[in-house]
């Protein structure tokens, strides 16, 4: 009797971290499997540790090798950490993509706005619909989240059904879109769910996430009470929040001015797909200065402190159309993503210095998370009754707490894995059965770099300790043809004794050359290495840091 095909799962991003989501499911045996990819997202660079890196993406080398067996890529929703890497990485895969209407439309708008983006076809699947992707039958189950048309995926196979939750919460009163489909999730639980691959973002938080309806009421109250101009910043993709801000502006007899390209793009797509039906038309930034102070509301990008976004420019008083003055208000209808605290804090401080009133979720309910807290996680487990639960979409603490909660809720098997682990889901006992290549790619300007890239490593070192450049002209006889040239970048002008670093390094270069035997002076590579070591050593002696040193030897 033939053995049944195994169903396996491997996260290539999004486990042990929040962001850069990519999960793959395989059906077959160890010699050949059909693969299904779920989401292909980014995380964002950290200037302190990764200077100059704009985006971080999952390493897809495994999928490139398995390209002929990759049946398709299915999107849970259109947040950047779930679909932001497609434009850069799809050309390496060229597989079919499946998404619902809003996600497909926002992706099309994103491609249109990006210069040189490839033509990437997307097959639109109705919300609640099903599609066959090779041997996988994928069902899109509506869930509440902070963007329209978020979906959990029920992945039906001969080996069993997996529920891949994507990002979700239970919100009985969403202001936009359908609530989480409890009825269908309960039906799945009755039919039998092999594994639940679940969002862990808020697994450390007790209770339940508040509803978007509560936030909408708070924003109405705040906008009505405001005396001067009002600016609101939120995640551009949060269409429900945009609608709530528009309704607050209407209740306070204010015009909405949209400021920032990302916000303009989402508003356009939301109107095209019907999510802003009945909402008043918004105005362009040029109108802002012509409206009375108590009749305008600016809806701005930049809630995460992005330096080129609208709010940062307003806070620095260098936006061409939008200004704020003493007595005006800014509502941060968002939470600060870990790592962005400094940038957001800088904007808030600049606004406070201008006399602007700041309102955040610390003092009013102006933001709620789109992810489930602990009681919601328990509800889902009770509905779905999975045989196995694997926590994903979270850092180590989130995964650990989700796993502990699942065990306490009676899930028969709970497994915590890492990016790159190959997990057998069934049939038979689940467990980690292998490893697939995983890692990170860096978007460096227009170039994709491996995480071990020399350029990235050297740039980090230069950011910490500057760089020394030395040019030496030597005769064929091994003598200095002229004085060496020394250029120090990012290195202090003087040491603690007040001596110029240029002079210290110059003397070290000359003395090193003069101290070398003549054959070594005539060998450009050997000479460059000796000078490089000497320069780093003398700078370290006087400063306590060893900068990179580049030595150019010219023979004349």
Automatic annotation (TrEMBL):
Assigned keywords, A-Z: Cytoplasm, Exonuclease, Hydrolase, Metal-binding, Nuclease, RNA-binding, Zinc
Q: SUPFAM superfamilies in the record, alphabetically?
A: Metallo-hydrolase/oxidoreductase (SSF56281)
Keyword Cytoplasm present in the record's keywords: the answer is yes
User: Which InterPro entries does the entry link to?
Assistant: Metallo-B-lactamas, RibonucZ/Hydroxyglut_hydro, RMMBL, RNase_J, RNase_J_2, RNase_J_b_CASP, RNase_J_C
Q: Where is the Metallo-beta-lactamase domain?
A: 21-219
SMART domains in the record = Lactamase_B
Name of protein: Ribonuclease J
